[in-house]
Amino acid sequence: MTPLALLAAVAALFALVAAKEALAAAETGLDERLVRLALAPKLPAPALLAGKIAAALVGVATAWLAAPAAPGRLALLVAIGLPLGGFWFPDAVLERRRRRRRRRLVAALPNAADLLAVAAAAGRSSAAGLVEVGRSGSGPLAAELRVLGAEVECGRSLASALGALRARTGSAEVAALCAAVERSHRLGSPLADQLRRQASSLRRDQRRAIEDHAARAAPKIQLVVALVLVPSVLLMIAAALIANADLLLAGF
Q1: Does the pLDDT value for residue 159 go beyond 70?
Q2: I want to staple 174 with a disulfide (CB 3.0 to 4.6 A). Which of 95, 103, 129, 169 is the partner?
Q3: What is the pLDDT of residue 11?
Q4: What is the pTM of this model?
Q5: Whether the Cβ atoms of residue 189 and residue 202 lie closer than 8 Å to each other
Q6: Residue 245 confidence class, pLDDT cut points 50, 70, 90
Q7: What's the confidence (pLDDT) of residue 131?
Q8: 102 has pLDDT over 80
Q9: 84 Cβ partners below 8 Å, 6+ apart?
Q10: pLDDT at 1
């Protein structure tokens, strides 16, 4: 075994020991993260931990092959980075899924608030309105509202079910909607006007976010034009000049 291969093996063993020590600290937070991603019934925490360990082992095998071929001190970086990167790769995938799910959930809130306001104006209770919105829609927000409706139908209080919805989603926008519903349910305050104002505010925030995204996209487009299109046009002009150089220089 070459020294670099031995170094890769030692680094891989270090990565596995570090991963084993991190499991105890990570296990308690995994359940909450999986609940927020609506993956808890499909992907229990032990299965996710097994996947993280398997990814770390793939990183170990890759480091075993790649570290001896890496030049100089880069071998140490490869030997340590690949196993650790494999261990944390599932976390990166889950984080990306969480962000996508949160965007979809927040995007559906204005329409859900409008529908709930219509139900409240028609005299329906808050719980009944939430259940109807969940049953009539699709996506992560509708799924969460269906869970809330099932909990209420099984005897759980609306306040407790709303608190569980806030904990599952971890979204400030959903928390504001739950607070308005809970306040109306507890104090008897008019709900329809509050929900319409929330829907209008959410749509303004979404429109502002789209405008900000478009404003950030303009410099990126200009950068692409400057780095790709302009040089390609200059190359075409240069090629045409070179191809016709004999005609251009005929008078000299």
Answers
A1: yes
A2: 169
A3: 54
A4: 0.62
A5: no
A6: low
A7: 81
A8: yes
A9: 15, 18, 19, 56, 59
A10: 44
Question: Strands (DSSP E) along 41-188, which ranges?
Answer: none
Environment class of 165 (CB within 10 Å of its CB; exposed 0-12, middle 13-18, buried 19+): buried
**In angstroms, how far is the first alpha carbon of the chain from the final one?**
69
Q: Distance of alpha carbon 87 from its chain centroid, rounded?
A: 19
203's tokens: 């749509």
Compute the 3-state secondary structure of the chain and give helix, strand, coil in percent, each to the nearest 5.
85, 0, 15
Q: Which of 7-21, 160-174, 235-249 is modeled with the greatest confidence?
A: 160-174
CB 119 within 8 A of CB 135: no
Rounded CA separation 185/13 (Å): 57
Locate 15 and state its tokens. Answer: 């990565």
For the record, the structure tokens of 181 come out as 């519903």
For the record, the structure tokens of 33 come out as 């993260």
Q: Within its chain, how far is the Cα of 29 from the centroid?
A: 17
d(CA 103, CA 97): 10
| Each residue's pLDDT tens digit, 176-199 | 888 888 888 777 777 888 888 888
- How many Cα atoms within 13 Å fall on the side-chain side of residue 203? 11
